Amino acid sequence: MDDAGLRRRAADVVPVVSVVTPTFNEAENLPALVDAVHAALGTLPHEIVVADDDSPDRTWEVAERLAGTDPTVRVLRRFRDPGLSAAVLDGMTVSRGEYLAVIDADLQHDPAILPEMVGLLASGTVDVCVGSRATEGGGYGEWSAARRLVSWVATLIAKVLLRVPVSDPMSGYFVITRAGYEQTASQINARGFKILLEFIGRNRSLRVAEVPYEFRNRVHGETKLNRSVIRSYLLAVSELWLGRQIDPVFLLYVLVGLVGLVVNSVAFALAEAAGFPLWTTGLNKAVDPIYTSFLFSVQLSILVLFVLNNEFTFWEDRYRGWKLVPAFLAYEVVSIIGTLIHVAVFTFLQNAGFLLSVLGTGPARVVHNLTGAVLALVVNWFLNTTYVWKRRTRRI
Ligand code: GDD
Ligand code: MN
What is the pLDDT of residues 296-335, one digit of tens each? Predict the structure, then answer.
């Protein structure tokens, strides 16, 4: 019997392996992927589940055409709740195999290691097998320095904060046993890109192994990895790290706030060094010279923070075009309120001398200042999320 005939027969029996492939604009890659998966798995009964988000390039049509002659191919054309992880989970839901594999459709993941990964799970000692670019024998292929840096930082965050036992937690290529999947699936947050991290981060009892492979270059189409993917990655890590009680977006807000603090300090130091105070004294003797440096650094950090919060923290509700103007003005007002709260709390605590006797003058100043900053931060968060970015499209 020829290959196609064997597969036709295989479609009648329950597949051992279900290979889920999420697709968005992969029409040109899909046929080659299907061939490569068949070549790798041979006569081992398997099915290929294409989870497509109604791609504009009609990937679903290509998939349906393939399914017409190849009954091992199944197609999910999804119309709602788009996203890589959500698509993968839907694909898994309809899978029938004992082992559930996830592989990118763009051929960057090498299907040739599928049998080895499945073999490890079949041995019964492992629940999840990760296709890894970071272990001995694997590789990232030709990546730009920027992409390497992003991946390196993201991997480090996952390893340090979540202590996941893999060298490539960002991999989108893995196989999990049906039992492992069923134990964990209900806890998964389907937002974002990092479906593997969700599985091994939520269920610590899963035994994980890695098989190396070399990440290949994309021949057709383009990557969907962008700023929003990096953002949702940080949201996912924050949620896995701290649980769902703390709004993960608040953490991004704090992170961005820390960047603002650095901008503020640097700008202040530069303004002082550039002799800003003299300018003021020349213009208006009544103004304390330090105020120009202070006002300059505060104003600059407000601007930088607005851009970062708009482009990153509140990405889903970001403003564009002329609407940026009223949004910035509202943000400015909120920031001024925050600055006033900061200064007022600091002055009040200093005057009341709360911690002076306990900590001494220097450390007490620091703590008083920090108290003001934290209070201002929390008040600003509520004002910003109520009046500036109203977070209508909350997708948490
Ligand atoms: N259904 C669906 N919906 N599929 C999607 C979506 C989506 O919103 N976004 C991306 N995909 C599909 C792509 O069509 C592709 O098959 C796969 O998911 C991976 O997307 P790419 O856009 O090719 O990601 P990448 O190659 O830049 O990212 C690689 O590195 C990441 C981290 O290092 C992949 O290997 C990821 O799996 C990996 O996590
Ligand atoms: Mn890719």
Answer: 888 999 999 999 999 999 988 899 999 999 999 999 999 9
- Residue 372's CB is within 10 A of a number of other CB atoms, namely 22
Look at the domain 3-242 and name its fold.
Spore Coat Polysaccharide Biosynthesis Protein SpsA; Chain A (3.90.550)
CA 126 – ligand 1 centroid, Å:
25
Task: Give the range among 170-174, 289-293, 308-312 with minimum mean pLDDT.
Answer: 289-293
The pLDDT assigned to 393 comes to 52
The count of other CB atoms within 10 Å of the CB of residue 15 is: 22
Report field, pTM of the whole predicted structure over 0.90: no
Please tell me the distance between residue 215's alpha carbon and the centre of ligand 2 in angstroms.
9
Determine which residue's CA is closest to atom 32 belonging to ligand 1: 170
Is any ligand 1 atom within 6 A of the Cβ of residue 130?
no
pLDDT value, residue 5: 60
Please write down the HEC assignment for all residues of 316-342: HHCCCHHHHHHHHHHHHHHHHHHHHHH
CATH 3.90.550.10 location in the chain:
3-242
